[in-house]
Amino acid sequence: MKKIFFSVVALLFACGAGAQTVYDAVNIAQRDLNGTARFVGMGGAMGALGGDLSTMGTNPAGIGIYRSNDASVTFGYNINSTDANYQGNTFSNNKYRWSLDNAGFVYAMKIGNQTSLRYVNFGFSYNHSKSLYRNLTMSGLMGAVDNQYLSQVRLMEQQAVDYEQYLRLNYPSENPLKNLHSADIWNDTDAGWLGAMGYKGFLLDDELHAVVPDEVDAYFQSRERGGVDRYDFNVAFNFNDRIYLGATLGAYDVDYKKYALYDEDYGNGEGYSLESDNRIYGSGFDLKLGLIARPFEDSPLRIGLALHTPTWYNLTLQTGSVLNSDVFVNSDTQTDRYSANTFNDLNGPMERDFSLITPWVFNASLGYTVGSMLALGAEYEYEDYSSMKFKYPEGDEMAWETGEAKNCLKGTHTLRLGMEMRPVSHFALRAGYNYTTAAFNDNAIKALPINSINTDTEFCNTKSQNIATLGLGYRGKMFYADLAYKYSWQKADFYPFYNELNNDICSAPATKVDNKRSQVMLTLGVRF
After folding, report:
1. Range 8-527 classified under CATH 2.40.50.320
2. What pTM was computed for the model?
């Protein structure tokens, strides 16, 4: 784990109350392999081949390949499986759901054969860009480092002490303990909610030291729901059946919810539970530009290039937390129950607005056909997540969060391969494969600014992702139907929290997580 040093100076880099993390941002910014069943069956490697609704979201020039109108809808059935193993203790969670994955149309307008411009095509597509349906559970002893028990309470101490030091430097007349105990602390933009929770729950003493009486037996559970929907508006041009140009304006709708429960049991009758409810919602837009060229007139080879601008999101974080603790305060034999509830004190959740700017995307692709019998596609894509930026609604940069993106994230490389074979005229067989490198550095942690309103301290560093696909297709004179199966797998290291001990970042051993997803997709469409 990386070294990191905290002090009140950190507030200089967190001018407003911290409201979101790079882990939430990556969840929103990353995209699933999704779209029509034909597109998925070929692993999405159709950027240079074109001729499919879903290509307007990868290489917009692909819509220029059309010579007739097209309309289709795609349904899916999903099985999300998460296995979490902590030191031999394994928990499995499954989530099953139906989905509407894609719907859209293309209107092909023939200009003629007298000019170099042969077709001007228009398209619209709805796509379920990112699915965030996951359940995760882990449990076990957290252990100790240098004879100090690892505990989330140490993060509470860190925030509370930094808040105290900040007040003493800038507002000497303020009483930090009185402020932390007040119901108005949640509205104090200089205070972190986690530290206030610890003090209100008597998990910190009057000197704001963490009270961790014994080794921590931890339990964690989370539920994530929602995702990102994308609406693409496309125009594409066909020049001499050799050069294809396209542009897609994308509109995004975000609705992502996460509930997390973290519990510590000290084995002596003391302990606490901390629940957090988060929701991020809002909208965004981007622009995609694409080119497909057949460089050799007598060759079916196609070369594709595409550039995606960042997606500019205007988002709102809606959050609230509840802590319940059982600790020895007034008696050595009887524990007392204490609680802190932001929903009660604020009459509902807290809301904070912010802007997120995702990375640029660079895409290059190749396509090759052998008559109408075989189509081969390959794609490479690069996206640098460390370049993500966070901004306040007024437009000022959120320096802490943007800095954490640079510290924790890196560029990703994606390779897509796909093939379609037609053994008989009306039927097709398809297969595809995707590989995407990890977006997180190995030493990434979820560091919160000292005035953060987040109380969910867990973080999951995902590794590289693999996707394998298979597909079948039928083409009639007008009607067509496609079926695809997608299987994705991705490992991750999960931590319920980290501690800073002796100027070093420490944590319990990683919980080894296996994320797997199976998806069956059916597309029904007509070309006319």
Report:
1. no
2. 0.91
